[in-house]
Queue: 2 jobs
Job 1
Amino acid sequence: LLLIATGLSACNAQGKRNSQTGSGNASSDFSPDIEIELTAQPVAMQLLDGPKTNVFHYEARLLKGSDSNLSEIQGSYLGPIIRVKHGQKIRVIFKNNLPRESIIHWHGLHIPPEMDGHPMHAVDNGEQYVYEFTVVDRPGTYWFHPHPDKITGPQVYRGLAGLFIIEDERKSLPSGDQDQPLVIQDRSFNSDNQLVYVEGSPMQRMQGFLGNQIFINGKKELTQNVKKGTYRLRILNGSNARIYKLAWSDGSDLKVIATDGGLLEKPLNKPYLILAPGERVEIWKDFSATNSGEEITLESLAFSSGTSMGRMGSGGMMGNMGGGMMGGNASFENGEAMHLYTFNVTGEEGKSLGIPQTLSEIEEIDPVNAVNYDTPKQFHFYHERMNWVINGETFDMEEVADWEKVKLNTTEVWQFINGDDGSGMGMMQDMMQLPHPAHIHGLQFQIIERDISGMDAEVWNSVKDGFINQGWQDTFLLMPGMKVKVVMRFRDFTGKYIYHCHNLEHEDMGMMRNYEVLP
Ligand code: C2O
Ligand code: CU
């Protein structure tokens, strides 16, 4: 507790100084435990057979710390993986060698607004931004990626993303090579092995990018040998817009041990899991009793995403446009079955562990303490005039509406609604309905209600067992017609953070807003 308190005050001081200078400079009175230089730059990589692929990559250099703090994923555009401990002080020097502006967002971390990668802090080619913060979050799987206004989607797609793992102190969980990340992404390549994005395809941009090839941890290899032992799989959906319905090919339940914000209280058994872009989930998998030579596959099952294109529906204009514009090589809707990753069980003995029945303690936020418990703020995510909007608004760098202002040290309930508020455009809005993964920066919240009364029954039936309402989260999927209430506390830092749809094309189109924590 003492550590946390010290960390927070250090963070506060740092955040304030930077907001005055606005430059993200290194400060002499911050002495980091870990210091890393991350340079975002274009490189050509051998990802496929044949020509190299032009990607963007974070080149990492450890300036202070131990080797365990930083690891690259060899042969991958993805990474690095940064491993830290709760309470440590981190300095990251971000250098931008990309052709366009960029900035890094630390997805899921509770840090001051100046450290959070707000698009207003984006730096140009040749410039740098220095992050200094203390790790106050729970152990868990967090991640980082670019966040410049309107061009986050293409930068993440070209390869920029890495993991930020806050390590557990407890010893009863799989470790070493039996604790491993699985970052799931989808990509499309042309015949020259170059990445294909949504440029020139306004309809795919509206839907969000959907690739036709799965990449795991930034590589095309979709199989791996595993020992007879127990694994902890840290799964991140790092895709721009694709939603997965995760399931094991052997029909066993997924044993969920953690969500976005770390370990659950108890393991949770799920027949399948819906994982939207930005979300993390940790799965316990025991291969100890599996026969050598057996293969177990993590699959994505088919589901109904509730995507509706109204009068431009699949049989009409959209369907025809889809094939032509995509050259017939990419799918055009979320929900198709896909093979994700195969574990090939070898004869090698690994470490076997029993699953702990108590994983952690979670302090429940009592929504009754919320200042707006009786009248939760409502956030409508919908389509209007070929734009994705929140309560009718799109992103403005500075703007904060009244309903986006909160007070420090208060608790609030926010209700997110996929659909318009019934006023205004009516039928025009209904023309397009899609799932939206909602993400709030700067904190972890708890889900207190998932109201499905406005959902299509067939859609709900195809996903209903795949949601997790337990634990700490920073991103959740809002299906068409769904209403989700979250409760959160605004603590420690004042200033502007953002919240947005984590379908990165929607985010880039403006489905993002500021919220401001006032003193
Ligand atoms: Cu992972 Cu604002 O995003
Ligand atoms: Cu969206």
Note: The helical segments are 2-21, 152-157, 202-207, 317-326, 427-430, 457-463, 504-508.
Job 2
Amino acid sequence: MANALLIFKPDAAYRLAARAGIWGWLASERDWKVESLAWFQPPPSLINDHYDFLQGRPFFPWLVDFMTALPVLVGRVTASEDALKRMRHDLGETRIAQSRPGSLRERYGIFGGLNCLHLSDAAGTGEAEVARWAKFVQLDRVEVELEDRTQQPDHTYHLRSLATQVAGGIHVEAASQMIRELVAEECELERSELESLWRVTLGALS
Ligand code: DAT
Ligand code: MG
């Protein structure tokens, strides 16, 4: 069995419809088992190590801010190597514009690297990631109960359209403001947390 690290990134941890949809898939445990789940805010040093292979890329400072701005949901999944491959297929490609239609990222990801979920890409990386993160967060028990439905609206596709405008330099202010309003509707967050989520969401578009 392979161990894989799983992270609901801020865009999935707080956008409640996205979280419910992704949890519905994960909790089906068709071919895998969720062994742990916990809230945890990673320090920048951990994200620097976790994404070491991306250091120097233009989006790297944003990526560290994205992954450290708020507590995220971190878990461990066990699966056969084939099942892990199927999970990654269900997840979809990294960048939202390239993500396979019907995949989780195409369904719930907003734009670019705002792609909802981290899942180790193979048994080897999973083992290393689990060992690294286990020094910071417990990966042995499920301590968070998530809902697979919510009253909160899902504005993913509207957000993607607005994000495309902002990234293209079109109606930047109006589109950014509408993104703030729609993200706020999707979440149940205090103002200061919402501002962090706005910052990392809009930060992905510049
Ligand atoms: P994945 O998350 O699909 O395993 P990865 O390991 O190559 O992708 O990259 C890790 C994260 O870095 C990815 O989830 C989002 C961000 N990222 C990677 N390439 C990117 C790009 N070209 N633009 C923006 N963000 C990117
Ligand atoms: Mg990866």
Note: Residues 121 surround magnesium ion (ligand 2) (CB under 6 Å).
